[in-house]
Design brief:
Layout (H helix, E strand, L loop, with lengths): L8 E10 L5 E6 L7 E2 L2 E3 L6 H13 L4 E6 L4 E4 L15 E11 L16 E7 L1 H4 L10 H17 L6 H18 L1
Parallel strand pairs: 1-7
Antiparallel strand pairs: 1-4, 2-3, 2-8, 5-7, 6-7
Length: 186
Amino acid sequence: MTDPSTLPYRRNAGIALFNHCGELFLAKRTDLAGNVWQFPQGGIDEDETPLEAAWREMGEETGTNDAVLLGSLPEWVRYDLPANLVGQALGGRYRGQEQKWFVFGFTGQDSAINLTLQTPPEFSAWRWVKPADVLSGAYDLGFKKELYSQIIPQLVQVFEGAAHASDAEARQWAEKAKAWVAASQG
């Protein structure tokens, strides 16, 4: 058995894609047993920045880049693979992943989302989910549940703080989202 402490972490970009209602894009994995859901994410190639990897992975896994960057988490976040996956998952070369998380606002129509661009597809289904519902137990998050419990509140803060962003496009998108959420609740 591989000693996890001898293996490095794989660098990875995570994508929190919010719609105008403040819901997150969550997708069902095709390669894991059961009914495991997660956010888009993927490895960072040697020749790209974490943000470039996030844009690439979003396009590959969701079929669209109809989005505006709202911000990112300031710190990298690590998670370890469960013991039974060390030496198998991630090519068997890593103990887990070190992720840079980016927050995007979806600007397109739901019909733009296409999970079948990759062969084989990484996801078989997707939906927009309220952040609290991601953690409610309604979705099997597999071994990423602890990670998501840690980062979702931070991702929501970035989403909500985008209204104060210096980037005009992000600020405009966030203001529209806030107005839509307020109108739908009132």
